[in-house]
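Quick one - inputs below.
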Amino acid sequence: MPQPNPIHLDLLIDASPRPASDGSRLEIRSPHDGATVGSVPKATPADLETAVAAAHRAFTQWSSRTAYERERIIRQATAHARSQADALGLAMALEQGKPLAQSRSEITATCDLIDYYAAEAPRIEGWTNPTEDRAYRSWVQWQPVGVCALITPWNYPVALLGWKLGPALAAGCTAVVKPTPVTPLSPLAFCHALAQGGLPPGVLNAITGPGPDLGEALVRHPRVAKIAMTGSTATGKRILELAAPHLKKVSLELGGQCPAIVCADADLDLAARTIAYKGWRNAGQSCSSVNRVYAHADVHDALALRLQALAEKMTLGDGISDPSVDLGPMTTPHGPLNAQAHVDDAVARGARILTGGRRPPGESYARGHYYLPTLLSDCPQDARVMREETFGPVVAMARFRSLEDAIARANDSAYGLVAYLFTRDLATTVRASDALETGTVCVNHGAVNTAYGPYAGWKDSGYGLELSRHAIHEYLKPKHIKVALP
Ligand code: NAD
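Output:
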């Protein structure tokens, strides 16, 4: 396949493409070979002002449309974005590294999710109350909070934007999106596609540039009423600190360190397939990756053999020119360095490398951020790979004898995002899922995120929730209206 042309995009403000006010740009490089894949403007504080002002102006009109009108307009916009899925998917594969087919399906799945929320707009129901006197009437209605700042990371650059944009637009809010400077091309192009699809001017704006500067200015901006962010726990805590003095509404999806418990009665083929998928897909760069596996001592070795075989079958490479590739490069140069540091630390503490544990050899990987799918066994609980977010293709195993011990070790974490359990026993399913300290428990599968399931990080993994119809309330505020009849 010939090298695709670099993608040069402008900011999206008031439905128009605009360069940065000082003309400066940020170059984006391929994680596969370091080539320039495109560029975006480096928005200035003046651009941020213009974007927030546009969103603020648009809010009055957008929020006073009927829910049915909003649903229709949003669906028209997503239909246009869906028609651009090939180009948008290519932008993501080029900048992020995941194979083209996975990037493309992230675009279409995001359109589906935004449509799910569009359909929720007419279901934002209020209620009436019985009153203490017949002369009173009382009802409650929900109103949109206003301008929302949507701040997003690089691992699922469009999906994690859709999780915020869907409920925000359906609720009647307007948005200023600030994607990560690591992978800004696909989310910015996605926003342009939605605007071209008919979102009214100012309803959706997108500015790109350095994270802390632009992000903090957005969070602090007096006209921004709500901040929704996915990213690291440290950044989330900083945002909460900045928002607190203004009592702004905030929702945060943060880091994860997800355990999988594999019981002696588990279907080992299913457990291995699921752990391989959740541990290594997207080069392990997922908040819901399986990081640590607690396997019953009776099945530990059989599971390890299956996982090792699956890891060694995986193909690495440029998933744009070669559709058979399973794993692309990691997105940032820091990725393989961090994975190696975690592996070295585990080995120094007594863990064994069953497969991987290094960068792949060979000229074709030399210029990319590649790291082999890695399996460690006998990993002690105090190893970094069991406690910190590796955010790489590294799965660490340990053995257990009693379910209580496995649950205690699974819960021994600052994070509380997702836990996986493999068993055929109903009592074990109920006991373990009650006791696991995570916002999501997946039993015998890895299909973590669905439109209907709330995704809430417990402990250091989040604040508020995303997904499910309930997430729309993160973008609404209640109003009680009490009338005394004359
Ligand atoms: P990050 O925290 O570095 O950045 C996230 C976003 O915040 C980016 O847009 C960044 O530019 C912006 N930002 C950075 N500093 C800021 C500041 N001081 N104020 C405001 N905004 C700021 O995270 P990342 O490296 O882009 O993404 C990886 C992290 O995201 C991992 O920790 C991962 O676990 C987490 N993540 C969580 C979920 C989830 O749903 N829980 C999903 C995916 C990723």
